[in-house]
């Protein structure tokens, strides 16, 4: 087993063991553990009519004599790469929504009494895990990690692992029946076999106080709920060696004073080496420290007001027409955002790969993370609420030590209703139960022009629970201008910071035409639309950031026009082939100007 030191933080899962749901002990910083990657080539069976469970393909049976045969095999058939989606690897699966069975064999090294976990970075959307013919776990949610302990189930040689994957859309899912991105299915992130000591460091939360710049708050949880175990948090560069002991729940906590701290910021993304040690385990981490709070209509980072120069992108490589899954993919996406002049990324519309989150932190990006509560959600459905609550907890648990994460997003474009309000209040509480240091936000498309008052307004009481109010408004595209952009006064969420989380319009790269004709699908119209929106933004008194929709053209079955190629949302500032449109340069200049104003 190869030791990796990528130092990635804790990952949460909810597994179904023996058919009953229960929470697993959660590994912290899984990429800093001893692990064996189970990526690579997997044999697959495409199960259009969902007959695999009836046929027990998970048992991977082989004929034992000349009278036996089985009407399935993982050998000699289709092969898929892991991690990746199945839609982009086999042309016939481009639009496929259904079941695919993945199978592969593996051996395990001698573990010297250590515990073994299978860890999945993400499987989209539903999964069942079988080891040596036995069901050991299941998970729902295509963008968060999960794990299952296999210490007593694994053999040293000739183990066979089977993963049933299904990406069928359902009304009670998160997201639900329709969403404006490609429904990629498959094992889309790393699969790992991880070893830990019998008693190990299960979780840690080490961050700067929300307001005070000289107080680090540390909380370490061990897998063993036992008092009196010695724990140490060390930050050598700051001369910190904080000794603690666990309580009866196996939790050790301390408030650590420091005077020499260099705070993390987009301009200086400083990370410190942090070592967490217990009597039987040790974890090495890299953590940044920064203060974050809202005061009135301003957002303060390290006690200075900040304007959020943001951009969004999907977890997709458009040139490959498939899911982004590697650190190289993350580098491509984030580098284009850096060239634009962005200091923040809204990771749309779901938790993206941990490679992306870690690299964004090193590159100096603030982050907004959210789960895909995106239109059409059944807010009255108890099962849907439970799924959403688990997903948002998985997201927060994974990334709560990443100082670059400044917003937890709890919804996108949801209509007002009492069930919706209760649902979103529950989402907020799920975040706060784990992490009270970040800001809570949500994006709305409910701003309307009041012709009597001659301004833009929004009536939605849910904004009262948010730290920042975010608005999706497509003036000049989905909404015609009721008056000139320089006369467009906004009166939305006064007293709170306001963020334009989506705006823009579609253009086909290289197509030129009348800048005033929307149906031209031209770069010229898109460019003028951006100029008009930037003019309007001058008249939003509490505007504290913008995020155009979107960095790259992306795949979506929502799109039917020939200029959209039957599958592309063309709102990108950059084409699916990586070509920058005119609007890209307009936003770059705007962000450069905003940077000089701060």
Give the SSE map:
Layout: E1 2-3, E2 14-17, E3 20-23, E4 34-37, E5 40-47, H1 52-55, E6 78-82, E7 99-106, E8 115-120, E9 123-124, E10 126-131, E11 134-140, E12 146-149, E13 159-166, E14 186-187, E15 191-196, E16 201-208, E17 215-222, E18 230-235, E19 240-245, E20 251-257, E21 272-277, E22 282-287, E23 292-295, E24 298-301, E25 304-305, E26 308-313, E27 316-317, E28 322-323, H2 327-340, E29 344-347, H3 354-363, E30 366-370, H4 382-399, E31 405-412, H5 418-434, E32 439-444, E33 448-450, E34 455-457, E35 468-472, E36 498-502, H6 523-537, E37 543-546, E38 554-555, E39 568-569, H7 582-597
Parallel strand pairs: 26-29, 26-37, 29-30, 30-31, 31-32, 32-35, 35-36, 36-37
Antiparallel strand pairs: 1-4, 2-3, 4-15, 5-6, 5-7, 7-13, 8-12, 8-15, 9-14, 10-11, 10-13, 16-17, 17-20, 18-19, 18-21, 21-22, 23-24, 24-25, 27-28, 33-34, 38-39
Q: Characteristics of this structure?
A:
598 residues, alpha+beta, Jelly Rolls, Immunoglobulin-like, 3 domains, six-stranded antiparallel sheet, 16% helix, globular, disordered N terminus, hydrolase, signal, carbohydrate binding, beta-glucuronidase activity
